[in-house]
Amino acid sequence: MLNTAILPPDEVIKDLKGIVNHVLKCFRLVDGIWPVRFGVKRERSRKSGSFLGVCAADDRPLSAFSTGQKAQLGLAMLLGFNYCLNTYIGHNIIALDDVTTAFDMAQLPRTAALIRQIAYATDDASARRQVFIVSHHEDLTNRLLDFLIPPQGKKMRILNFVNWTRDKGPQIEQREVVPGLKASAENRKKFVDALDFICSGN
């Protein structure tokens, strides 16, 4: 992405660096990675002549990052570009494709906390995004969903791809996720009503 993108203006790069490092701080990173540094690199063989380079705080190049570290940086860069270039994008949507694949289980709560901040931010409406998460790894997704239950007044939907046929196309099940406390309160009331009904002898 960095090698093919048009180099953004200096003020965008400055904002991008701030957001990327803010996001990376949410993850558990080894010493020397954070904060990452950005630099404009000149290259004669490229048509644009320059590109945006990224390296670790201890000067490790991007190629030395582990798969998980690259995934964390990729997520941070996606969010950074989305926020920095929001006036040009024209929408408040972020789509994440198999974002959990490269993360271990210890990183899932941190990833979920980050997604919750993006999707359910209440103090600043301009910071809120509609988030789509696509995943083929059901076990990881289910664990991630446990941390993404929406707060009161917010919504989350699960679209489960069930089947595909040539005649009818995709078959998708849609479910709305209900906050746990709300579900518990409703279920407790139903249980009490059922007990009252049984005890009354009706």
From the helix content, strand content and strand pairing, which structural class follows? alpha+beta
What fraction of the residues are assigned to beta strands by DSSP?
15-25%
Helix content: 25-40%
Biggest beta-sheet profile: 2 strands, antiparallel
Through-space gap between termini: 68 Å
Mean pLDDT: 82
Oligomer: single chain
Instruction: Tell me the overall shape.
Output: elongated
Extended strand count: 6
Radius of gyration: 22 Å
Number of helices: 6
Order of helices and strands: HEEHHEHEHEEH
Low-pLDDT stretches are none
- Please list the strands of the largest sheet in the order they lie side by side: 1-2
Describe this protein's structure.
This protein has 202 residues and is of the alpha+beta class. Helices cover 40% and strands 20% of the residues. The chain is built from six helices and six strands, in the order αββααβαβαββα. It has helices spanning 10-24, 67-84, 86-89, 108-120, 138-147, 180-199, and strands at residues 37-42, 50-55, 93-97, 130-134, 156-165, 169-177. The strands form three sheets. A two-stranded antiparallel ribbon has the order 1-2. It has a two-stranded parallel sheet with strand order 3-4. The longest helix is centred in the last third of the chain and has 20 residues, at 180-199.
